[in-house]
Sequence to fold (194 residues):
Amino acid sequence: MFQFVENLNDMKKTTPVLAVATAALLSFALGACSGGKVLTPRKRQAGEIGKQYEEINPRKSVFGEGGIDFGTGTKKQPGADQGGGIGVNSYLWRASLDTIAFMPVTSADPFGGVIITDWFSPSETPAERFKLNVYVLGRALRADGIRVSVFRQVDDGTGNWRDATVEKDANRKMEDAILTRARQLRNETRLQQN
Fold:
């Protein structure tokens, strides 16, 4: 019985310490989740193509704009990398989302650079549907930095969907559209910085 009381007294002494340590750890972990730019869609202006975004309510770090790099102990330079806080080129990523905005997105992984859409049937041809897998392959804005796989199915008349061939250069056309939009986004960013 006395051993139980001693253990209970020991627990009373360590519980506040554990609670404070847990709270500090949670504060640090949750604080690390914040940061980055918050982008929201805006209306297009004359001559603009695709969805346009504007930065709203950007949060600042206690270490100033750009935060601190714990690997070197030096401050980061804003815009020093082209990733924008994600694992792949931010222009290609945003351009991919803009270009396929008419299709429902099933999965989007900005760190792995993978966007998977759900099946989409154009209103002009309801008996066929398309699906896209978009892969952003690196942090540089290059022509070989994007890969698109296009899938097509047709309704066989009984309500069953059957795989069908895709136009030979459909993948390349989607890649070109994404690259064009990515270049536009990069040029807009450069104009805003000047």
Notes: The first helix runs from residue 2 to 33.
